[in-house]
């Protein structure tokens, strides 16, 4: 359901201001003007930003271009801030405009959610769901899940940020984030997903040159490939049979190469350049294709968990809960990529002496 407000003042608004019929509306300063006027400004600004044009924004709202231009000018005058740059090529929000756009979009969606909450009968998911997730994980394993969900809900819009950066959910307007690793202490709420296993891998040709390691200490002299975004890129923790999971050992390495992307690191290992410890979700295909081989399968290397985290204090819209519920179902233990490796005899079932979850692997 869209909100379409006429550019002219309504009769009751004119009467409230003591205006005769046919006269223009009074210009409101900051903090003045009716909430309906302000709502129209928000909707106009969001439409113009999303369409990138005054003309297309006006067409979307079903009003004249002059009305859209006037609303945008009134809004900037009321706030005393330039929100958008206009040119012959279109309209682009300024830095202040980007911030204001995010807040306005959220307010409009909240208003629609309020209507949808009391409308009787079944209604499909609508509106926008915004979330962030690690790049490598998203490209390899979220793609089919999100494609299926989007097909089932054609009226739903998805805004997905795929990167390894950890964003502030309360400041950026994301509904939730998928994160991998040990959760930092915060006020965020969390739903736990599957276990993320890390595996030590190298190319078969590399193991042939150096021989397969018999103990973790054998790896100290190998060519380590390390993940740059780890808290401890030169240290790898592990547990082995007979060792307590609460007291993992630490292996110190001198990396031959340090990179900030797990896929790149895995490809360097597949090229025979060294040995690395990487989440199984990154190397499952390379392992099944024989381009990589697991060493020391009896050890567990800083296993982690995936989580969905979201801000407290405000109820999640039904559309966001639906996406999260679908991910919880699809990403249960053991995850699909590990199931395939276990079925092919490449990976053993998860041992009971797994190392504690930490943010060592190439995803956050």
Please give the structural blueprint.
Blueprint: H1 11-16, H2 35-51, H3 54-61, H4 65-79, E1 84-87, E2 90-93, H5 95-118, E3 127-133, H6 135-152, E4 156-162, H7 169-172, E5 176-180, E6 189-202, H8 204-210, E7 224-227, E8 235-239, E9 249-252, E10 255-259, H9 262-270, E11 276-279, H10 280-289, E12 293-294, E13 300-310, H11 318-330, H12 336-343
Parallel strand pairs: 3-4, 3-5, 7-10
Antiparallel strand pairs: 1-2, 5-13, 6-11, 6-12, 6-13, 8-9, 8-13
Helix pairs in contact: 2-3, 2-4, 2-5, 3-4, 10-12
In short:
By secondary structure, the protein is of the alpha+beta class.
Chain-averaged pLDDT: 80
> Helix tally?
12
Structural class assignment: alpha+beta
H-E order: HHHHEEHEHEHEEHEEEEHEHEEHH
Contiguous low-pLDDT stretches (5 residues minimum) are: 1-32, 353-364
Strand content: 15-25%
Helix content: 25-40%
Radius of gyration: 27 Å
What is the terminal-to-terminal distance?
36 Å
Secondary structure: number of strands:
13
Main beta sheet strand tally, sense and closure? 9 strands, mixed
Name the overall outline: elongated
